[in-house]
Protein: GPI ethanolamine phosphate transferase 2
Amino acid sequence: MSSSSSSSSPRRGTVSSLLLLIAANLLIPISILIFGAGFFPYKPLLPGFADYEDALENGAQRVPAQFDKLVFMVVDALRSDFVYTADSGFKFTQSLMRAGAAFPFTAHATSPTVTMPRLKAITTGSIPSFLDVVMNLNEGDESASLASQDTWVAQMKRKGTGKSVMYGDDTWLKLFPGVFDRAEGTTSFFVSDFTEVDNNVTRHLPAELKKDDWNTMVLHYLGLDHIGHKGGPRSPHMIPKQREMDEIVRQIYTALETEEHLASTLFVVCGDHGMNDAGNHGASSAGETSPALVFMSPKLKQVRTIFQAPLPEDDEFEYYTVVEQSDLAPTLAALLGFPVPKNNLGGIIPEFLLFWSSKQQVDLLMQNAEQIMKVAGAAFGEQALERGDGQPVSDAQKLAQEFGSLKRSYDDRTRRDADLSDMVKPLSNWLRTSQSFLSGMASNYDLFKMFLGQGVAIVALAFSIYAALSAVNDPPSSFTPLFLILITYGIMMFASSYVEEEHHFWYWATTAWFGYLGVRGLKRGTITYSPTLHVLSTTALLVVTRIIRSWNQTGQKFAGVPDIVKSFLLTNPVLLWFLVILTYLWIHQNLVFGFSGLPIWLSFATATGLVLAAFTFKVAFTLEDAPEIVTDFIRKILELNFTQGVDLISRARAVFIGIGILTGVTLMFMLSGRRISLGQPGTYTLLALMTLLLATQSRTTNIPLLLLSNLQFRLLQFPLLEGLSPAEVSVSVLLMQFSSFFAFGGTNAVSSVDLSSGYNGVSEYDAAVVGLLTFMSNWAGAIWWMLAGSILVLSKREELRIMRARNKRGPAEEKNLWKAHVAALTVFSAGSVVAVMAACAVLRTHLFVWTVFSPKYLYVVAWSLAQHLGVNVLLGGLFYGLGVVEGR
Structure:
């Protein structure tokens, strides 16, 4: 009886720990959703649309409009220097500045610098929610519609003086469903296309410029942004694209001069955001937040203001006057004669006040100020803005007090018909102060949901810790490294600088860990081979790790400093392609060996054909993306290949299909218990196929990192794996996943998301496919180490089997190995979610909450849901299970 009880107790513990582990992994996404619902709410908005009956009070007069039509041209990612410097392709636009027919500005774009929230700011004058950065990534989402919100697009429609037309980025159609009378949208995320995406806009121009039935024309060009994502701001395609856009400016401006029905048309050219030195955007660097903004019309010459153009380079990208993007809404309202949108926080750009008399200028500014005070009343409550018996106790009350003083002066002078000219400056200053205050005020967080989400995450962490400690018979001290990593990581999340430079933590932790393993192996005397070989292997591992660390300089503060890619590979393409070819030859060798169970001619021909297809795709891709780094020898290889002339989509599909077929063949062999390789398990063959897939999805300069990662894997597997506990194997895999992510160029900024390989083999936008390909290209290193890590766990399993045969371990230890590995990774995943949630909650009023901590939350979501649950748990579990089946 006692024997039965003692044997069933471990079984019950095993079952309970498994259930807790499953519960932990289910609670992680639940906690993320709950916390996100509280952390990213939409701000309350004033309903309805403004009209002049509400806007004009106390006998104020409606100020006459200066224009009756609007052409609004957005050039996606039009950074200010692209228009204003000597290297610009916008020569005609610069000539208009010198002639006084164009007013140039730098429009400050607040983070997140992606299209949808920026268009919301431009059209409403308000500050969008950070959650719009997520909405921006979903082409099919329509929940972010502005159909019921007050915008200058809606106000122009309500004027009833003409139709609204739109051509370009279909984000406008999602934001304004049913508003445009004539429209044709283009897919904004298909970044492989530089040409057709813009030609599809321009081809409508000649006919539309001849028609007189519209009062609003929106054009949104995407090609320049696509070039930035693919090749950066210094891509050889960039200047020709700028010249193309400048020629369109010439075409439209010429029509304004020659077509009678366009004589009173305002032409605005702007960027929705800029781009950083890598060509990406989404964060808050100077390049990303500084798009150009130019107002053009022959009527602007009446103001007689001319501008110097071009200007010298400015590292801060601040050219001419810097205004806020939200200033566009009230400025267009004044110039085109409609009331300021209800939720606007912007102020009329002062340079345009010269069109009106001093009395009219003050009327416009007062209408703008009264509208902003209504927004403040909705945000804080009318009673909260009222002054008590004592002095004002809040910034909101001070703001209301200053407005009250200006309003009383305005009303008094208006009744007496007195001079108002000296009120222009104080009103303009008040508008800037209120704009700064209201734009920076804290969001309406749902603290209950935030704390509830964090509580659920803490429960998930507790469950995972219990599961990890009970999965194997190792002492709890074996988990000390994991807990040290988690605690240190959690502390780091409360400092914005550490979040921005997180890669240093993983680099130093990985190096220290490898050094520790090397020293400990010698000290314990557990190695079964030469100590000299052990020292050499450990040294080699540390050297390779150091090289990988230096491959891509990442982070925020030192992103532009020299690294191996910038200093050696881009400046020496011969070396780059030597390493790339070496990587593909290594993959070829692994595939030939991996299919050695087949006839030699078949394995060699199959491996050669697939690797050649993948290599030539990468050459053709790079020739389109960055032709300057493709050497003449590599070009000749492509010319000699029989696939010359095949388009990139077909090439990529051929590679994907080939990898899929060979993966299926390998799986059939493994499941049937047969070896497809004579000398190694099928898991190595699958690793080689996945390596080829990840090379296809990686930037050309990063492909050699896969070869170096394999060298790390081999050095870690044989010299250092011996004697490691299961928890320590998991720590090694965890460290390599994170350090490789940053080594491949990843950061915690939205702007570092590389979209260039997200469309390989894709002819039409599909959110699921593009999302998967984009994830693979950005997490290539981490995905590779999931597979390599699974092999390490399988190797540890084989080691335990041998030890069991020697009666040193029990069978339960071997069977629970994968559960222990998943539990250890779940501990860190749940712990990282808890830490980042806590940081976001505590620092929700921090200056960098939307530029540092919120993007980090999105990244921890990607790590937890996609990498941990999708890759480590599901794909890794399948991979490990296949290895177990094959090894029986």
